[in-house]
């Protein structure tokens, strides 16, 4: 069953627990992570926690627990849920205090939910997805996994309204990433994705893809690319915790490759599944 946690207590999903003056609620003043559990085992937990604490450091947030303590809490909540395949959402905020832009002197708030993992339909995997390219209107520090996601939400909604799965974002003429995913192209067997920078989230599945490419001896290049290069690619795919590795077969109404998931994308997805066992 789905379960939640707030500041030391395991609670039901519908229990009222967030105070009005909670800073995540009022300011979006916090950071978060989403970790998938496969057969009751967390996937790349250390990497997720490393990124969480790096994001917290970037916004000068003291979480108040070390990584081992937080991992123990996550594992306990996941175990009590009884879910084998689950998505654990965790956020840390600057706490509960009267509304004021300056940092308050109070402990951080930690909240979590564990819910059944959201699996994509088989036909989506077999057919691939459509995307639309949009201007990247987010702030300058996208490497921080911040609660402030309004530009991402607007981009995702625009994609949905255009009957697309994802919005792929363009900044200064180059693809950065999707609204909630990392983006890759494949040309002549070479995998290419934008290099990590302030404008890119260091995706955990992105890291897994890089590791798998190395194991399969597939060329992996971290280099910026344009919309024109994306349109002309042999294959395009995205990665994220919830989508894993997913083929993009249409961008702005243009077919990618043959309009079907390509061999490299399929191989990466198959090996990603092996990595989760």
From TrEMBL:
<keyword id="KW-0032">Aminotransferase</keyword>
<keyword id="KW-0663">Pyridoxal phosphate</keyword>
<comment type="similarity">
    <text>Belongs to the class-IV pyridoxal-phosphate-dependent aminotransferase family.</text>
</comment>
<dbReference type="GO" id="GO:0030170">
    <property type="term" value="F:pyridoxal phosphate binding"/>
</dbReference>
<dbReference type="InterPro" id="IPR036038">
    <property type="entry name" value="Aminotransferase-like"/>
</dbReference>
<dbReference type="GO" id="GO:0005829">
    <property type="term" value="C:cytosol"/>
</dbReference>
<dbReference type="InterPro" id="IPR043132">
    <property type="entry name" value="BCAT-like_C"/>
</dbReference>
<dbReference type="InterPro" id="IPR050571">
    <property type="entry name" value="Class-IV_PLP-Dep_Aminotrnsfr"/>
</dbReference>
<protein>
    <recommendedName>
        <fullName>D-alanine aminotransferase</fullName>
        <ecNumber>2.6.1.21</ecNumber>
    </recommendedName>
</protein>
<dbReference type="InterPro" id="IPR001544">
    <property type="entry name" value="Aminotrans_IV"/>
</dbReference>
<dbReference type="InterPro" id="IPR043131">
    <property type="entry name" value="BCAT-like_N"/>
</dbReference>
<comment type="subunit">
    <text>Homodimer.</text>
</comment>
<dbReference type="InterPro" id="IPR005784">
    <property type="entry name" value="D_amino_transT"/>
</dbReference>
<dbReference type="GO" id="GO:0046394">
    <property type="term" value="P:carboxylic acid biosynthetic process"/>
</dbReference>
<dbReference type="GO" id="GO:0046416">
    <property type="term" value="P:D-amino acid metabolic process"/>
</dbReference>
<keyword id="KW-0808">Transferase</keyword>
<dbReference type="Pfam" id="PF01063">
    <property type="entry name" value="Aminotran_4"/>
</dbReference>
<dbReference type="GO" id="GO:0008652">
    <property type="term" value="P:amino acid biosynthetic process"/>
</dbReference>
<dbReference type="GO" id="GO:0047810">
    <property type="term" value="F:D-alanine-2-oxoglutarate aminotransferase activity"/>
</dbReference>
């Amino acid at each position: 069953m789905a379960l939640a946690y707030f500041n030391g207590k395991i609670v039901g999903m519908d229990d009222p627990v967030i105070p009005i003056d909670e800073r995540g609620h009022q300011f979006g003043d916090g950071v978060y992570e989403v970790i998938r559990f496969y057969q009751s085992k967390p996937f790349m937990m250390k990497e997720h926690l490393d990124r969480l604490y790096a994001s917290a450091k970037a916004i000068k947030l003291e979480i108040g627990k070390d990584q081992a303590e937080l991992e123990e809490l996550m594992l306990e909540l996941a175990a009590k849920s009884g879910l084998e395949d689950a998505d654990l959402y965790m956020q840390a905020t600057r706490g509960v205090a009267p509304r004021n832009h300056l940092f308050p002197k109070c402990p951080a708030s930690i909240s979590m939910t564990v819910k059944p993992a959201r699996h994509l339909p088989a036909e989506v995997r077999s057919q691939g997805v459509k995307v639309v390219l949009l201007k990247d209107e987010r702030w300058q520090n996208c490497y921080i996994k911040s609660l402030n996601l309004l530009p991402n939400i607007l981009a995702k909604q625009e994609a949905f309204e255009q009957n697309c799965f994802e919005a792929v974002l363009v900044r200064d003429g180059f693809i950065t990433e999707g609204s909630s995913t990392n983006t890759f192209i494949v040309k002549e067997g070479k995998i290419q994705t934008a290099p990590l920078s302030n404008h890119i989230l260091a995706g955990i599945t992105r890291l897994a893809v890089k590791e798998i490419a190395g194991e399969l001896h597939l060329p992996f290049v971290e280099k910026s690319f344009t919309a024109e290069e994306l349109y002309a690619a042999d294959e395009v795919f995205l990665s994220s915790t919830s989508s894993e590795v997913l083929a993009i077969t249409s961008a702005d109404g243009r077919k990618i490759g043959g309009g079907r998931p390509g061999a490299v994308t399929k191989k990466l997805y198959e090996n990603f599944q092996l990595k989760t066992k």
